[in-house]
Amino acid sequence: MRTLVFATGNPNKVAEANQMLEVPFQILSLQDIDCTEDIPETSATIEGNALQKARYVSQNYDVDCFAEDTGLVVDALDGDPGVYSARYAGPARDAEANMNLLLNNLKGESDRSARFVTVIALIIDGKEYTFEGIAEGTIIHQKKGQQGFGYDPVFQPEGYKRTFAQMNAEEKNKISHRAKAVQLLNTFLQSY
Q: How many CB atoms lie within 10 A of CB 186?
């Protein structure tokens, strides 16, 4: 069986991908290939960061791999936090601090529309491919729910009365931005 490395240090993302992918590949994490360095994410775009991470792992570890980058795009904040979503409140990548800053910056805003955007960059047999998933929704006024991670407690997907953090993994994995991008990756890899 061929292997494919998911270029992330986030165990939550690896678990989500393993739940969603149904491919004839063994999915490995960065820890599985002893990649412990902090992979640069210096691009100005979500797609650019995904490609940057995948290229780094592919070139430095000589493996087929995929990487993803996700950003929360809030209309009233001119697209912020966007590509800086994980570090919105500073370099510590503190989800609580990020959510608190977001909610504070949206005080008094009537337009709370937002979307999560995920781009997966795949490098396999030396060729690059990208897959994008988007989940439209709204930023609610206070955190709700205990599931998920990141901004899940403040993001209510369109058509639902609950946040991602109020959904179990199975529910979220049917409708999330990451699920949509992973499904495109899944379809591609099944026919590869």
A: 17
Q: Is residue 175 a contact partner of residue 135, using CB atoms and an 8 Å limit?
A: yes
Catalytic residue among 64, 69, 80, 152: 69
Residue 75 designated active-site: no
How confident is the model over 122-141, as pLDDT tens digits?
999 999 999 999 999 999 99
Peptide bond into 81 cis (omega under 30): yes
**pLDDT digit string, tens, across residues 5-31:** 999 877 777 777 777 788 888 888 999
> Which among 186, 178, 191 has a CA at the least distance from the CA of 21?
186
Using an 8 Å Cβ cutoff, are 79 and 73 in contact?
yes
CB of 130 within 8 A of CB of 50? yes
Q: The whole model's pTM is what?
A: 0.91
Per-residue pLDDT tens over the stretch 155-166: 999 999 999 999
Averaged pLDDT score across all residues of the chain: 94
Distance separating alpha carbons of residues 45 and 51, to the nearest angstrom: 10
Consecutive H or E run containing 26: strand 25-29
The β-bridge relationship of strands 2-6 and 65-74 is: parallel
Domain coordinates of the chain in residue numbers? 2-190
According to the CATH classification, is domain 2-190 in 3.90.950.10? yes
